[in-house]
Every structure is written in structure tokens, then in C-alpha cells.
Task: inverse folding
């Protein structure tokens, strides 16, 4: 049941404002990701943008690994698979901002001579903090792209997790 009036009014207003902030931040993330993709295309590279339907961190292998999972639309999975299989996409950059309790990011996996794959997503800071706290010291870090039904599409290993996590808000150690 939703509280109305009295003390709950401030909470409702805060939640409503937060929702507007999240929507605006998500829209901005998508627009900036598209702009980056256009820059790559202007430089003669193929660029594919995939907005993730959901994202979140989880521990794997009893805490020996930490994984950022992006759930991508099933209709984009084939295009992602084709791009990953045709280009090494061994380099990556992360464009990230934190708004309230949400982290918005665009990850660019790329081959500087051929193609870029951009994944735009957002995850909740509190959930990420729980996963980071549960990971063992020295845990590996990877990103996983998967479909809604759980089918893995691509996995990327990363030596530096700090690019993906707001280190001023999470206890991240390498």
C-alpha cells in the first residue's frame, strides 16, 4: 500500500523525482552511446549499439569471479555474435556516470581497425555493492552478454574492474 500525505509525502516525491532522473539519465546514456557510434562510423568503422534490457553484478565460482551481466534483446543476439566472431574486439572502454543509486554506462568493445560493439546499460549501486562485497580478494572480472532466457551470447574478460564500478561508492580493490 502506498502512503499518502504526512511523512510519506517526502518519500513519494523523492521516488517520483528519482524516477524522472533515472529516465533522463537512461535517455542521455542512449543518446551519448549513439553519438559515439556515429563517430566510429564516420571514421570508417562498423559500429553496433545494443541497449541492454537489464544489467547487474553477480559473483561466480563461489566468489572467485565477479561478473557484470547485460541482458540483451534476442533480436540483437545474432548481430552481436556475428560481430564478435568477425572481429577480435579485444580492447574496451567504459563511459560511466552515477545518478543517485543507479550506475549508467556504455561499454565499447572494439577492434581499432574494424568494429565497435556498444552495450548501454544501468545497474543498481546497492546490488552491485552486495556482489562486490561477496567476491573474494583477487576475484576475476568479466562481462557477460546473454539473452533473456539465459543463453550466453558473448563473454569478455577484463583486467581492470574499476572502469565499470564507481570506486568512490564501492569497496573495489584490485
Result:
Amino acid at each position: 500500500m502506498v502512503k499518502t500525505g504526512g511523512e510519506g509525502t517526502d518519500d513519494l516525491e523523492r521516488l517520483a523525482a528519482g524516477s524522472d532522473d533515472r529516465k533522463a539519465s537512461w535517455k542521455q546514456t542512449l543518446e551519448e552511446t549513439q553519438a559515439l557510434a556515429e563517430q566510429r562510423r564516420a571514421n570508417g568503422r562498423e559500429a553496433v549499439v545494443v541497449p541492454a534490457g537489464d544489467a547487474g553484478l553477480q559473483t561466480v565460482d563461489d566468489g572467485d569471479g565477479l561478473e557484470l551481466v547485460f541482458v540483451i534483446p534476442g533480436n540483437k543476439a545474432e548481430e552481436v555474435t556475428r560481430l564478435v566472431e568477425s572481429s577480435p574486439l579485444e580492447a574496451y572502454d567504459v563511459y560511466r556516470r552515477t545518478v543517485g543509486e543507479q550506475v549508467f554506462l556504455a561499454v565499447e568493445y572494439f577492434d581499432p581497425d574494424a568494429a565497435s560493439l556498444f552495450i548501454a546499460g544501468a545497474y543498481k549501486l546497492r546490488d552491485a555493492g552486495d556482489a562486490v562485497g561477496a567476491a573474494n580478494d583477487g576475484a576475476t572480472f568479466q562481462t557477460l552478454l546473454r539473452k533473456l532466457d539465459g543463453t550466453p551470447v558473448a563473454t569478455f574478460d577484463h583486467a581492470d574492474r574499476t572502469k565499470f564500478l564507481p570506486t568512490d561508492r564501492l569497496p573495489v580493490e584490485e
